[in-house]
Amino acid sequence: MKRKLFLPVYAFFLFGCNQQTGSSRELALSNKIDSLQKTIDNAYKPGLGEFMNGVQLHHEKLWLAGKNGNWKLADFEVNEMKEVLADIRTYCRDRPEIRFLNMIDPALDSLNQSIQDKNNLSFKNNFTNLTHTCNSCHQATKHGFNLVRIPQTSDFSDQDFKPQ
Ligand code: HEC
């Protein structure tokens, strides 16, 4: 008889305690989430234009490598450009223009094939095609004033593009 009476009281006491620690833990967690959100909001995130500067750099280096028949370097540069494009897909989701980004993939794949084949003539043709694709996307995204062309000289006098 005695036991029957004590159990609900004990349970009520336990439940009450639990609720209190539960809500203070929730508060601590929600404060932590708020402060993490602030950290994320203030974290540095490059814009699309900054990523495009990276694309431009690899575009030029890719040309200089291929022109010099430096296929190892050309292979490296294609992959570097692909990494920047992957970053754009990850970090620039808020930019509607990136829905056009996929148009560059076939051009890059063909150029990659010329590099694997070590074929100078097809490299030049496919590089020209890649450059047209850059401009097609710039036009599609109303940035046609960013006109890309085949590099005329090297901007990297501190790098030797000839094969070793
Ligand atoms: C989504 C389609 C798209 C493709 C493909 C693309 N671009 Fe762009 N590019 C843009 C957009 C949009 C901007 C403007 C970004 C901004 O608002 O700052 C831009 C800007 C640029 C700029 C100007 C950056 C600056 O701040 O001065 C350069 C240079 C550039 N792109 C080079 C290239 C090259 C080289 C290629 C090809 C290898 C290429 N882009 C392919 C969309 C594209």
How does this structure look, described?
The protein folds into two domains: 1-43; 48-140, Four Helix Bundle (Hemerythrin (Met), subunit A). Helix content is 71%, strand content 0%. It has five helices and no strands. It has helices spanning 2-42, 48-67, 71-91, 104-116, 120-140. Helix 2 (48-67) runs antiparallel to helix 3 (71-91). The chain binds heme C (HEC). Heme C (HEC) is lined by residues 47-49, 52-53, 55-56, 59, 97-98, 100-101, 103-104, 130, 134, 137-138, 141, 143, 146, 148.
- Helical coverage, percent range: over 70%
Alpha plus pi helix count: 5
Portion in strands: under 5%
What oligomeric arrangement do these chains adopt? single chain
Radius of gyration: 28 Å
Q: Which architecture of the largest domain would the CATH scheme give at its second level?
A: Up-down Bundle
What is the typical, i.e. mean, pLDDT? 91
CATH topology of the largest domain: Four Helix Bundle (Hemerythrin (Met), subunit A)
Query: For this structure, what is the CATH homologous superfamily of the largest domain?
Result: Cytochrome c/b562
Distinct small-molecule ligands in the complex: heme C
Termini Cα gap = 94 Å
Count of extended strands: 0
CATH top level label of the largest domain: Mainly Alpha
How many domains is the backbone divided into?
2
Uncertain runs = 9-14
